[in-house]
COMM domain-containing protein 4 (Hypothenemus hampei), 186 residues
Amino acid sequence: MRFRFNGGAGCPEWIIHEVTSLSYLSCVKLKTLSKIICEGIINPPIQYSSAEKLFQNSKLEDRGVDLKCCISCLTYIISAAIQFNCDSRSLHLELQQLGLPIEHTNAIKRVFDEYNTSLKETFKDQSLKINPLEENAKITQGDNGCALLQVKVNDKETCITMAPDTVDDLINELLQVKSIMTELKS
């Protein structure tokens, strides 16, 4: 089976196993644990001490439920769902398909809906970024008809020598990237 929350790929075996463990938690504890995880993703680190308090007086360890495994499972599910832009309705249905009871999926769905925007912003801020240029790049005429590209990044100036056809290729590729970005933006 393929799951939208996992980018259209199959679900890892360990997630399927840990969903069983999550079903042993009460809905209230699962909702609270999900909130702790979402808050930990937004403002790292995850507060394990708060999560441990949920497990203190329960007899979940007798059933083989491991707190760290539950945290890992929920972190994976929530992070993957945000990364692959999965809507909460699809996440809700897919978690039921994995065997999580409907009350539990409702609890995760509510938390997912509550933190969705903040999580997306967090992942957007953490995405790979190239160091920003400190000034505009300068292209000047160099020796032998070559172009000199001068850029300044992190207080370090770099000069790159390029053949004229390389400059043309670079400009064409940048224009293509710009049009793709404009398409994606709208």
About this structure: The two ends are 32 Å apart (CA to CA).
